[in-house]
Structures are given as C-alpha cells and as structure tokens.
Specification:
By secondary structure, this protein is of the alpha+beta class. Helix content is 45%, strand content 14%. A hairpin with a 5-residue loop joins strand 3 and strand 4.
Length: 591
C-alpha cells in the first residue's frame, strides 16, 4: 500500500526504487514473506536493503503505532468481506486453514482478537523469522550483449535435447476419453432473479446507478468516465495514464502521503486508471469515501515535485511490458489490425512520448476530459439507511466540468495477410493468429459467444474445446487460447488464437492451428452446442456474484443502452441459436 512504511520511505521520501511490493505466499508447511523492488540503480541496493532491515527491526521492537495497527486490521477486515463474496476462493481458504489449524471456522474468526494480541504476534514473527541471517536475496539482471551468442548456443543445445526426447515418445494412440466426467448429469440452469439498478442523474450530468446488497458490510463504487482510454492523442500517447497516476499524488487539502494514509487507515482501496476509477469501502465510511473522491476529482494539484517520480514508475512499467512477449504481442497485433485507428494505441505510451510529457499536458487533459458530464457511477453494497441522493448532492454534486465530445472513429479495415516477426531472447515463441471481428452490438455476437465456448474454451476455459484438444493430442503447446470476440467493444474486436511453443516445433504448431481455424466451422455437434449453452447461461450469475461485478454489469447495460431485463431474457435468447446460425456467423470472421 502507498501508506506503508516502505512505500513512504523508498518511493516517496528517498525515491530509491521505481516499484516495490511486499506480500506473503503460502507454502505447504511454512509461509514465505517477500519484498520485491526495482531499484533506480544497482548502486542503491545496499541502502534499500538497509531500509528494509531497519523497518523490520523497528517492528520487532514493538514500534508499531496505533494508527498503523488499525490500518492493518481494517485492511484485513476488508479482505475477509471480499472473501465472503467469492465462493470458490472461500472454499479454498476454509480447506487450507482447516488443514493448518484443525478449525473449520478459523478463516472467519481469526480477527476476533485484540489489537494488543496482533501487535505481540507481529513482533514474535519478525523477531523469529525476519532476521538477516535467515533471509535470502536474489537479483534478476539484464544479460550483457557479449553473452548473447553463448546463450543462443546453449539454447540450441537444449532445444535439440528436447527434440530427441520427444521424438522417442511419439503418441500413437488417441487421447483417452473422459470417464468420470461423462457420469455427471448437468442440471438445467435454474431461475435467477437478476438485480436491477436504481438510476438517476445529478444536476452536473453524472449518471448514478445503485443497488442495495446488504450481504456484507461493504460498498463498491465503480466510476466510468466519458473519456475512454483511446482519448489519448496520437502524437503524445500515455498522457491519460500519466494524469491518472498523478491524481493521487496530492490535492488542495491532502499531500500524497496523507491521502494514502487516510484511505488505507479505513481499509479502503482506491484505484484510478484511463477510463475510470474504483473504490471499495466499509459501509460506515461511505460519506468519507465520497468526500475523498470529490477531493481527488476536483482539487488535484499535480505537484511538480512528484512528476519525475511518477515518470520513472511509468518508464519502468513500459520496460516491463516490453519484456513480456505474451503481453506485448497484443500491442504488436493491435497496431496492425487497427492501423490509424484509436484502438491501436498503448495506454502506457512509449518511452519517447512519456519522456516529453509535461505538467501542463496533464493539467490540460484533466480540465478537458475529467468531467461529470457523460460520466456514470455505479454503487453497490450495504446502502441500508442511506439517503444516497442527498449524500451525492452534498459531495460529487459540487463537481463541475465541460461537455466531453465524442471522438470520431476511422473505419476498421479488413486485415490483409501479414507476418510480424519480433525477435527477443526467450526459450519459447509466442505465436498469434489475429483478424478483425465484430462490435458488441452486432447481431452475431451471441452466436460467436457460443462458438467461442466450443472453439477456444469460452467463459469456462473448457478442456473440451477444440484448441485444448490440440494441446492434448499433439503436446505442442505450453498454453493455448482463442476467441472470436477478443477486445470487443463499441468498435470491432479481434479474432485471436494465441499460444506458446518451442522454436523447433513452430512450423508444426502453425500447421495444426490453421487446420483448427479452417476446420471447426461446419463440424460442430449438437451435444457440443448444448454444453456451450449450459456453460454460458450458467455463467451469467457470476456477473452478479460480488458488489464489484454487479456494478460492472450495471455499467455495461448503461453503456450499450441495453434494457434492464437484458439478463433476464439472455437464457431464452441463447437457447434459440442453432448450429447453422453459429456456422454462418463464424464463417464470416474465422478465416
């Protein structure tokens, strides 16, 4: 958290690192506490290490303030309430802690202790396990240019060994059919009454969607600006992202540190990003949360002293982004599919554009695009007893801003056959097949949604999908995914098949994927379609499993102008789709 000791010292005060995180990881018998950081230079590592050791020693001496302790307890309470919204995660945690403690209710009761108890336990853990002699450290360093020929030679030897092993174990039989899975009789989807939001609009143009869900004592707020991520200018991409990060670096009434402390001391979370923001609060803190949101949206100061700190963080993010082929391959294909289109831009920007962004660019973007006019806010949670209209009028009702004009889109041209090669030193190759698809309101959307379930795994990542069967049959792919609706939005999305393979089997992988692309249309069986319908229809309830997902669903309906009973009719609409409908729709885009 931004209010933590290490963030304040290493990022804000001394600016020794561009990124830092601390967390725990559960192992089978012992936990792992780790701190991960990216130093601004290797020369600073000893000073960073000493800061970490000093803070651990301070906690070991019991130098924990009541404010810090309350912050930690509040955040853990919020984590517990989030857990109560996630049945799958909840089941896992119940089982894990029962195995460790013998108490099936431990995960629900462990917070029922005094603050003094937690302070004592933290001291004991740090003094026993977080001493320098029993700690380990490691560094991931860039490979020098001079070492790359040797690395390539070693990699070629490794690939040859892999090839010899695989050639000696060629599959000669079909993958065994499932046995137990075929004994399970799937139930027909039950009746579910999808929640409906209440809706009204403030005088400043802000649309509010809200729903009372008293299941847990927390409230989720999801905000959608009229300005979407693609509002960035072509000549200076990354301004929107830069501006969002600077919004929490200080306001008229709060410094960056004070703002982080105020938010985290109440267990709240706050995140702002190109296109929107999210906030999660305990139900008793709603008015305070709205005041904080109003402060951030109306009084940011974009302090010049913090500009370079944030710039360094973004530059680190960009470097990390372009160091992960699975991730940056998306950007390579977007630039080709959406040539000259606003969807081609990377919200992070480029190293060159971020280096040229000035404070005036951020202020200008904020004044032009961050406005209540055309924005939508969804609030879901325990709203019992609240007069929400009065609360919002007293807080965000004072926010004003200009009308945000729609941005024009250039037509998305049909993709022409192109091969994009991007060399990078890695053990494997990311292989993508990409084409142009449809927009969200296209009449073929639901037909392709069902096709996705059969072809690429769809909403459940089904192991019965055609692409997963390729993985099982040929043993070529480390992972494989596919969709005809990748990134579908107001503008057309993409058809995408993406996998990771070893270089020596790349040609074989291309061949079998092309066969799947060209051979799935017209071969769908009736039982596959029925299973796909069950999967998609049953997954609809997941859109309303938590406050946050419910808020996102309400925003989705409002964004596309769908009727409030959209989800109520969804099962019936999907049930009417035939194999012929799916084949015709898929044939238009899957080539």
């Amino acid at each position: 958290g931004r209010g933590s000791r290490l963030y304040k010292k290493l990022v804000n005060d001394r600016q020794l690192v561009t990124a830092i995180s601390a967390d725990t990881h559960d192992l089978f018998e012992y936990g792992l506490l780790y701190v991960f950081f990216e130093p601004k230079s290797m020369d600073l590592v000893p000073e960073i290490e000493q800061c970490i050791l000093d803070e651990l020693a301070s906690i070991g001496r019991g130098e924990i303030t009541d404010e810090e302790l309350n912050r930690a307890i509040k955040q853990t309470q919020m984590a517990l309430y989030n857990l109560l919204e996630d049945d799958e995660h909840q089941a896992y945690q119940i089982g894990k802690y029962f195995w460790a403690t013998g108490d099936e209710n431990y995960v629900f009761n462990y917070l029922n202790q005094s603050a003094a108890y937690f302070k004592k336990e933290m001291q004991e853990i740090v003094n026993r396990y977080c001493r320098q002699p029993v700690m380990h450290k490691g560094f991931i360093l860039p490979m020098p240019e001079s070492e790359q020929p040797a690395w390539k030679e070693i990699q070629e030897e490794s690939d040859e060994q892999d090839n010899q092993i695989l050639q000696a174990r060629v599959r000669t039989t079909e993958v065994e059919e499932p046995s137990y899975a075929n004994c399970i009789e799937p139930r027909e989807p039950g009746i579910f009454h999808f929640p409906k939001p209440n809706k009204y609009t403030l005088a400043n143009g802000l649309t509010v969607l809200y729903h009372n869900n008293p299941a847990t004592p927390k409230i989720d707020i999801v905000f959608q600006f009229k300005a979407r991520p693609y509002f960035d200018a072509f000549d200076k991409p990354g301004v929107y992202n830069f501006m969002c990060l600077m919004l929490t670096e200080g306001t008229k009434n709060y410094s960056s540190d004070l703002l982080a402390t105020l938010i985290e001391s109440r267990g709240m979370t706050f995140s702002v990003y190109p296109g929107g923001l999210t906030m999660r609060v305990l139900r008793d803190d709603l008015y305070f949360a709205l005041e904080v949101m109003q402060e951030i949206l109306t009084n940011p100061t974009f302090p010049a002293d913090n500009l370079e700190k944030v710039r360094d963080q973004i530059i680190t993010d960009i470097k990390n982004y372009w160091d992960d082929p699975w991730t940056f391959s998306n950007q390579l294909v977007r630039e080709d599919v959406y040539k000259g289109h606003k969807y081609s831009k990377n919200v992070l920007g480029t190293l060159q554009s971020v280096a040229t962004i000035e404070r005036s660019d951020l202020v200008q973007f904020f004044q032009k695009y961050i406005s209540p006019a055309g924005a939508t806010m969804a609030i879901v949670g325990d709203l019992t007893g609240y007069d929400l209209e009065s609360l919002l009028t007293d807080t965000l009702g004072h926010w004003s801003g200009p009308v945000v004009e729609d941005v024009p889109f250039t037509p998305v041209a049909q993709v022409t056959p192109t091969q994009i090669d991007y060399p990078i030193n890695r053990d494997q190759v990311v292989l993508c097949f990409v084409g142009c698809s449809i927009d969200r309101k296209n009449p073929d959307y639901d037909k392709l949604l069902l096709f996705d379930q059969i072809f690429g795994g769809g909403v459940l990542g089904a192991m019965s999908s055609r692409l997963f069967q390729l993985r099982e049959q040929y043993g070529l792919f480390y992972t494989i995914r596919g969709s005809l609706l990748s990134g579908v939005d107001e503008q057309p999305g993409m058809v995408s098949v993406k996998t990771i393979v070893s270089l020596d089997r790349l040609a074989e992988a291309e061949k079998v994927i092309k066969q799947a692309i060209n051979g799935t249309v017209g071969t769908i069986e009736a039982d596959e379609l029925q299973e796909a319908k069950h999967a998609v229809i049953n997954s609809l309830v997941d859109l309303f499993a938590s406050n946050s997902s419910m808020a996102q669903s309400f925003l989705f309906l409002n964004k596309y102008g769908f009727t409030p009973d959209f989800f109520d009719k969804r099962a019936a609409d999907l049930s009417k789709i035939t194999i012929d409908d799916i084949n015709k729709a898929a044939a238009k885009v899957l080539s």
